[in-house]
Structures are given as structure tokens and as C-alpha cells.
Amino acid sequence: xxxxxxxxxxxxxxxxxxxxxxxxxxxxxxxxxxxxxxxxxxxxxxxxxxxxxxxxxxxxxxxxxxxxxxxxxxxxxxxxxxxxxxxxxxxxxxxx
Length: 96
Known about the structure:
By secondary structure, the chain is mainly beta. Helices cover 11% and strands 32% of the residues. Strand 5 (88-90) and strand 6 (93-95) form a beta hairpin. The protein has one domain. It has one helix spanning 23-33, and strands at 10-13, 43-47, 53-60, 63-70, 88-90, 93-95. It has a six-stranded mixed sheet with strand order 4-3-2-1-6-5, with helices on one face. This is IS66 family insertion sequence element accessory protein TnpB.
């Protein structure tokens, strides 16, 4: 299923990411930098340096799903994520 739901745990990667990274590169960031399991079913959110692009990685029962959006104008307002319920916070990452 391709849906993202409120029942999932969301982790925001706190550094800007080179958006040339694909599933494998983002998988490595989750595993090495965030010390989390990329196949946990949790959702991992990555922003570009200009904040005009976002990639969202998540494991679905039999493979990864990579969502991507690039804004034609403007930037993503990361502060909007504060509206989500904070579950835990760790150095280098924030989970929502």
C-alpha cells in the first residue's frame, strides 16, 4: 500500500541531503547516521538544501517506496512539522 498514515512513526533527517541520492543512499543514511532500521516500516523524511524538494522513504512489506516532490516555486516550511505529535527525539534526528 502506498499510503502514509498518522499511525506511522515519522523521522525527520536533520541535515540537508543531496537529492541525487536514491533508495540505496537514503537507506544508508537511515542505517548509519540515524542508527535506525530502514525496514522497520517507519517513515524517513529528507529535505534538499534549498528546501524545494523532499524525499520520503519507507519500507512496505516487500520493498521500499520512495516519494518525491519538488516545488516549482517557494520552499517547504519545515516548521509546519511541529504540528505533528512528537514521539521521541534523538541527536541528529527528530521523530514525529
